[in-house]
Amino acid sequence: MEDIRSYLESGILELYVLGELSHEEAAEVQALAVKHPEIADEIAAIELALEQYAQSNAIEPDTAVGQRIFAEIGPAISLPASPVAAAVPPQHQTVTDPETGNQSARLRRLQFWLAAAVTLLVVSAGALFYTYSELSAARERITGLSLQNQQYTRNATYMLKSNEELRTMLNMNADAGWSAVRLAGTAQAPEARMMVYWHKESKQVMVNNVNLKLPEHDKNHQYQLWALVNGKPVDLGVFDAGKDTSSMMIRMKEIATAQAFAVTLEPAGGSKNPTLERMVVMGAVSI
Amino acid sequence: MYSAALYGVISRIVIQTEIAEDLLQETFLKIWNSADSYDSSKGRLFTWMMNIARNLSIDKLRSKDFKNAAKNQDIENNVNDIDRGNNVSFNPDTLGMRDLMGSLKPDLQRVLELVYFKGYTHVEVAETLDLPLGTVKTRIRLAIMELRKNFN
Fold first, then answer.
1. Residue A83: its pLDDT value, please?
2. Nearest to A179 by CA among A140, A205, A143
3. How many A/B residue pairs have CB atoms within 8 Å?
4. Which three-class secondary structure state does DSSP give residue A196?
5. Which helix H or strand E contains B40, and what residues bound it?
6. Which of A184, B48, B112, B117 is deepest in the core (most CB within 10 A)?
7. CA-based Rg of chain B, rounded to a whole angstrom?
8. Is the pLDDT of residue B94 over 80?
9. What share of chain B is helix, strand, coil (3-state, %, to 5)?
10. Looking at CA atoms only, how far is residue A78 from chain B in angstroms?
11. Going from the N-terminus, what domains does chain B have, and what CATH number goes with each?
12. pLDDT tens digits, A73-102
C-alpha cells in the first residue's frame, strides 16, 4: 500500500500520460495498472484532467480546414458527424471492404454469366424446336408434293396416250380401209356387245375398249377374240373386259381375211380352240 | 469537439496557423490510419489522439525544414521569434486559458507549459530550467493535481 502511494506520488504516471516514458517503462506502468486499480484510477484522473485542460483551451479550426481534412481522409465516406466517429469505426470498413467488394463483384459477374448462359440455352432450345417443327412440316409438304407430282406425271402420260389414241381413231375414221364390225350378244349374254375394227389391207385388228360391254369374268378367265376364216376359228389374242381402262383401243393379232369375229370366255391365257358354249358375242363382217 | 481541443494543443506548439492546420490534418490522417492500434485498455481515446497530435507537432518543430523556414524569416520579425523561442507565448485565441494557468503557481505553470505545449521532455525541462529531474517530475505532478482540483 505504501509502495503504491509513493509510486503514485513519484510523478511517473503523469509522464506516462504525457507520453514521456520509454516503451519498457510504459509497459511496466500498464502492467501495474492492471494489477492495482488505484493506479488505473489515478491514470484515468490524470488523463481526464489533461483532457479537460485541452478542452478548455480548445481552438476551433477554420471550417475550411475541417472540410479539407475530410476530403483527404474519407473521399468515399460522407462527412461524419464527429471526427471520433470518423476516426475509429471506418477501420473495419477499410479492412473488409476491398475483400467483400471483390467477392461480391466476382459473384455478380458469375451470376451475370450464369444468367447469360441459361438465356442462351433457352433461346437455343427454342430455336432448335422451331427448326425441327419447320423441318417436319417441310418434309410432309415435300412428300405431298412428290405424290402430287407423280399423279400429274401419270395424268400427263395418260392424257398423252389418250390423245394419241384419239388421233389414231380419227385417222381410222378418215381412212376408208377400216371397217367397223359390230358384235352382238348371244343367248349366253344377250346384253353383251362390242366393236371390232379391221383394216383389211394392213391386216390390223383393234378392239374398242371404251364401249366394251361384256359380262365380268374372274381372274382365272379371259376373253379371247376369234376370226372365222372360211368356217375355221383363228386365234386373235386375249383381252380383259372392264379392268384395264388405260387404253381406248386394244390392238389384237393381225388377220388378212375374215368373214366374222367372235369372242369366247376361255381360261386365262387363251385356248387353241374356242369353247363354243362360252361364246358371248359374235358379228359378221358386213362386206 | 476533439478537433478543436487537438487544434488548441497543436497551435500552441506550432504557432504558425498554416502549419498548425496542416498538422491537424496530418494528425487526423494518422489517427485514421492507425485507429486499429488504439487499445482502450491502455488509456482514454483522447489521450491517445492528443499524444499523436503532440508527437507530430513536436517532430515538425524539430524538423530540418521547419528550422530552415524559421531561419529565413524577415529580420523585422526576428525579435518576436527570439522572444518566442525563449518564452512561452500564447496564441491570442487562447487568452481565456490564462486565467486558468494563472491560478497555477508560476513554477508549476512553467514546467507544465514546457512539457505539454512546447514538447519538451522532462529531461529537457530539467536541463533548461536547471532543476533536478525529480523536482521536474514532482512539479509536473503538482501542476496536474492543481488542474484536477480546478476542473473537479
1. 47
2. A205
3. 142
4. strand
5. none
6. B112
7. 16
8. no
9. 80, 0, 20
10. 15
11. 1-88 (1.10.1740.10), 96-152 (1.10.10.10)
12. 665 444 444 444 444 444 444 444 455 667
Instruction: Tell me the shortest Cα–Cα distance from B69 to chain A, in angstroms.
Output: 22
DSSP helix/strand/coil, A283: strand
Cell of B115: 512539457
Verdict on whether the full-model pTM lies above 0.95:
no
Give which of B69, B88, B82 is closest to B128, Cα–Cα: B88
B29–A84 C-beta distance less than 8 A: no
Burial class of B72 by CB neighbour count within 10 A (0 to 12, 13 to 18, 19+) = exposed
Find the closest chain A residue to B152 by CA distance. Answer: A49
The torsion angle over the Cα atoms of residues B5, B9, B10 and B13, rounded to 10 degrees, is: 170
Q: Per-residue pLDDT averaged across B21-32, rounded?
A: 85
Q: Do the beta carbons of residue B15 and residue A61 sit within 8 Å?
A: no
State whether B43 and A43 contact (CB < 8 Å).
yes
Provide the 10 A C-beta neighbour count for residue A144: 10
Measure CB to CB from residue B144 to each of A46, A69, A91 and give the nearest one. A46
ipTM field: 0.72
More confident residue, B36 or B64: B36
A 9-48 near B (Cβ less than 8 A): 9-12, 14-15, 17-20, 30, 34, 43-48
Q: For residue B31, list chain A residues with Cβ-Cβ distance below 8 A.
A: 83, 87
Nearest 5°: the CA angle A9, A11, A12 is 115
Q: Phi, psi (5° rounding) for residue A230?
A: 50, 45
Torsion of CA B87, B89, B95, B100, to 10 degrees: -40
Task: Report the pLDDT averaged over residues B11-30.
Answer: 84
Inter-chain touch B137–A90, beta carbons under 8 Å: no
Specify the pLDDT at position A77: 46
pLDDT in tens, A232-278: 899 999 988 876 677 788 889 999 888 999 999 999 888 888 888 88
> Are B21 and A62 spatial neighbours (Cβ–Cβ below 8 Å)?
yes
Please state the rounded mean pLDDT for residues B120-124: 84
- Higher local confidence (pLDDT), B30 or A96: B30
B137 burial level (CB within 10 Å; 0-12, 13-18, 19+): buried
Flag if A49 and B28 touch (Cβ within 8 Å): no
